UniProtKB/TrEMBL annotation:
Residues 83-321 form the Carbamoyltransferase domain. Residues 376-545 form the Carbamoyltransferase C-terminal domain. Belongs to the NodU/CmcH family. GO terms for molecular function: catalytic activity. This is Carbamoyl transferase. Pfam families: Carbam_trans_C, Carbam_trans_N. The lineage of its organism: Bacteria, Bacillati, Actinomycetota, Actinomycetes, Kitasatosporales.
Amino acid sequence: MRVLGLGGSHHDFCAALVENGEVRSAVEEERLTRVKIAFGLGPRLQRCLAADYVLSAAGVDLADIDLVVANDFINPVYTLRHRDRVTWMGHHLAHAASTFYTSPFERAAVLVMDGRGSKVTRDGEPYGETITSYASGPEGMTVVHGQQGRVTLTDQRSEDPYEDSVGWMYEAVSKAIGFFTSGGMGAPGKTMGLAPYGTPRYVEELGTTYALVDGEFRQSTTQQIALRAMVEKELRKAGTTAARDEVRADFAYAVQEHTERIVLTLARQLHERTGLTDLCLAGGVALNSVANYKLLEQTPFERIHIVPAAGDQGTGLGAALYGYYTLGGHAWQPSAQPFSPYLGREYGAADLSAALTEEAGRLSVERPDDLYGRVASELAAGAIVGWFQGRSEIGPRALGNRSILADPRAADMKDRINAKVKHREPFRPFAPIVLADRQKEYFTTDVPAPYMLLVPRVREDKQRVIPAVTHVDGTARLQTVLPQLNPRLAELLTAFDRLTGVPVLLNTSFNDNEEPIVETPRDAIRCFLNTEIDLLVLGDLVVRKVVQP
């Protein structure tokens, strides 16, 4: 049985193909259109490039597909080409399926938290999903508790906020302190990165803009207005640029603090309702990796799984898996192997050669006998390396196949990459990648973190060893590297460890600021030439820039 899943909402459109329970391919529309989160594409959205991509990657045609599934909160323009075949499902259900059916758990509690989801009508007024929890097992997924928030504007646009939405609160503060994407969406990832630079100055005041009642998050329209007004007032009062920056950092601190409190409360309530000890997370709030780690520290849940495409870019994956397991009537049985996020298409030697030929006069290419030793020595000498390997990873975080890598021991490396490559705010942190069997030497947890969605502390004695990936508060957004998931990245880390005694590298996504992660060899070469990346590795090839006369 083959199932094509289409996903997204009014942003983060995506597609996935599941065949006999195996995820054959998945990709986000942004990787193909080169428009960040595929927001504002207009009529171009109906091209639905991601669907063609996943079919081609698996070597099948649309005629070979048994079922097409999409969530009912998606912009319908994206499904126009497939409208006669689409089976619809709920938005939060697609999130839940994306994380449970990629987990190692036979049974688990599932918590979905985002800005907004499928619309419903109550007493003649529009509402939508904001927080939904499930108990899941071989027999399927059952709703344990659901919250719906009232739409707080009257024109009912797809981006209108809902009441009682944790995701909306975090994004509202992000926008109010000036963090937007190029398309006008909020940029909560920046807020999470800024939060450790702040103080508790606004924690108490921000707490007056919502309530936790019987384990539910409540925030009315009046409180939403008060929240935005609070931030705007404090920014106006700040007389200097430095004072405004302090206000922004302090509000980032406050909204992060309250989001953690809310998520912990919701998780504890879910544990009480289900008695389950394994937890799966999805929805945009599940990308808050700081809060995720605290769930392990401060709730009764013993194990946690977050799908790497936890935002709307994972709902196509969830739709395809739901189509196979629930609509297709197949019983769930977890795999003994960890879920692989590397689901893009494979680019062969001919693809690499064609892309390199287009820029032949600007590039030199070699194939070293010892690729890993050569790249490790370049990294140890201070080079910033674009690392392009195999199939691209799903989700907003680069996991080692479309990555920029660097030496974490260099104290100035964070500033170098932010200024010269990523062209972004200097406070933005970078993530460490570490060999899984060496994790405990450097970090305060041995919990696997293959998808860069947990933030533990860096051990005190190692913070000076890897300063480029140690955040200002002594934490790091960790990725553990398993040879069975990414053997080439593990080989490189091993080579770097042999050379330096440190089995850790700095890892960030292979892209420039406000650009999607590179997908093709051409994308990688373009980014390499337009930034101050020193070295590009395409498969087994080492590529350098030719100095122009």
